[in-house]
Amino acid sequence: MEFPPIRDRTILVTGGAGFIGSHLVDALVGANDVRVLDDLSGGTPRHVHEDATLLEGDVRNRDTLEDATRGVDLIFHEAAVVDVTETVERPLETNGVNLEAGLALLECARREDARVVLASSAAVYGHPVELPVTETTVTEPASPYGVQKLALDEYARLYERLYDLPAVTLRYFNVYGPRQRGPYSGVISTFLEQARAGEALTVEGDGEQTRDFVHVEDVVRANLLAATTDHVGQAFNVATGDRLSILELAETVREATDVEVPIVHRPPRQGDVRHSGADVSKARRKLGFEASVGLETGIRRLVEEGPGGRRS
User: Fold this and answer.
1) Is 163 designated active site?
2) pLDDT band at 1 (very low <50, low <70, confident <90, very high)
């Protein structure tokens, strides 16, 4: 897959040892000087490209952040606590990662006159009353995670207006692909792990909740387009525009893996959104972004290649 060209830049990717960040680093190395800042709590050095410089550290540490951003031209901010349940249980601690560190990063970017692409989330919309959601849909987060992401989203646009900082926010919907790992790695990777082990696929709640699943390859392309667009100070949905129920997803995984395992239900997660789906026309119109990897194709690729990707 070819990505929009970015060359001869000094680039920082926070969370670059993690799922989305490591794929983004892969697309940037070779033509750029790429740094990765990661505390390795959710990522692994195995996923960091050998041509990137790994800085092990916490984004909440101001000295660490200032050192990592010194001399950069471009910052992709992927570091976050992404588990909604953890933010419900530990709102104060997770706010330090998801909001305070992001605000400090914007300050560093202002000092360095660097462009910033920030990872936000569909969680900013909460329980939408109408679908699909556009970027102008009322934002009423249903969890501390959504509040934290929305606040940073607003800060990014404020910094563009107040300080002329070229910042773009990307509101990811349900991202999947190689290198998702850990207990909160996403329902697709969880289903695939269960199917490979011959275990029942565990569905939270009744399974009728719907999601818009977008492949990490498309998310990387959206990031690179955001890094070169003239439409700064704005937020964009990053999704496919298609919705699928979790039960339908479970059936798709069973077919792709060709295993006969049952589907079982367990209680729904606290703060979970019932239905989620994006209108992606703004990203198509202003960024030139459109998802290219269909869900069935993406799942088949995961089955064939395994979950680890190139550096697993």
Assistant:
1) no
2) low
